[in-house]
Amino acid sequence: MNHPHPPGRFGLLLGYITPHRHVLLAVLGLLLAGSLLSLANPWMAGLLTASVMGDGANGWSVRQLLGLWLFLMVLRSVLSFATQYYIGSTGERITAELRTRLYQHLQALPVGYYQQRRSGDTLTLLSTDAAIISSFVTDTLVQLLPALVTFGGAFLMMAWLDWSIAVLALVFLPAYFVAMKVVGRKLRPLSRAWVDANSHLVSVVEENLGMLPAIKAFTREAHEQGRFDEANQRLFTLSRQQWQIEAALSPLISLLGGVGVVVLLWLGTNHIDSGQLAPADLVTLLLYAALLMNPLGTLANVYGQVQRTRGSAERIVEFLGEQPEPADEGDIVLDKVQGHIRFSKVSFGYPNRPLVLKAFDLEIPAGETLAITGPNGAGKSTLAHLLMRFADPIEGSVLIDGVDTRTATLASVRAQIGLVAQHVLL
Description:
The two termini are 26 Å apart. The protein is of the alpha+beta class. The protein folds into 2 domains: 9-184 and 247-320, ABC transporter type 1, transmembrane domain (ABC transporter transmembrane region fold); 341-415, 3-Layer(aba) Sandwich (Rossmann fold). The chain contains 13 helices and 4 strands. Residues 1-6 have low confidence and may be disordered. The protein has a 4-stranded antiparallel sheet with strand order 2-1-3-4, covered by helices on one side. The protein has helices at 9-17, 21-38, 40-52, 62-108, 111-115, 119-161, 163-170, 173-210, 212-217, 221-273, 279-320, 380-388, 410-415, and strands spanning 341-349, 355-364, 395-400, 403-404.
């Protein structure tokens, strides 16, 4: 199996967007059309206000305006349904594809990788992290275009009605971006810590289920409950910190928007008094100002989602960067072996640990039965792992019928060996 070099965070996202670009482009088109239709609402409200006040609405009666407005709302609802359907199905497909790739890489990694890590980390990658990436691609990114179109369209319409009020609305933009920057700086480390805490909680539960008979036999339920409570409290604390920060952003954005509306009303009423602006146009301006503020809230939400996604993307990229089992160095296929096994001057040690074996020699003739005993950590399981090529020796060689196992294919070596592990699974 070919395992290409893992992409960076953005390469990872692009790799899953590209195969679905046609559907996503169609979705963006639907979103663009929906955004343009939303820009018609303030204009229709202004025309309706002018008609009711008797200022004229370019020959349109109130009944005609209401009928047209209703048609536009129905059309926008149809576009929204199509958008949600296609983006939902695409998101599920991307999630499935990402999980498949992660699982393929999981199968290709050496046994030693899992001996040094909690299984909950891997389970979280396949569940939580993959779902977060998919949600970012199909939900968060897709919000950007409508937000930008709505913002640009609302500003242009405001400028067409009264350029001074439109320019004043832009004065509040720096405050929005400063608020998002501050929130993003606080969310980024929390998002990574949350994912790590979630994987730890999954590991605790999995270990408990795997050792449940022993836990009950030694009456360790209270101890295990304490481990779970500690991990659960850690996850809860991080979740609460995340939501506290995000909760502070929404009222701040609303406050800035409220101040902006008050200032626009003050300036708009002055323009009405001076005859520069019609009352119906002020209604239209205020509604466009509200449309102008909505995309800023969306952008703030997108920014927060980006920070949460970075943690998951970093974990996935790190996982895909782990080296799989070495490719077959030779092409010898072991077939119908006699069973003569020899360890020749084998040295081996696990990362950051002392050598388990040093210049070790062992010869087992074909047909002979041999029991290897010793204390924990003496290297009994290591011998089996080296024979199965779960790991390769640092020095020396392992031979079957005189053939160095590194010169034979992995599949043919393992096909000749039967293994009964300490924990038997059917």
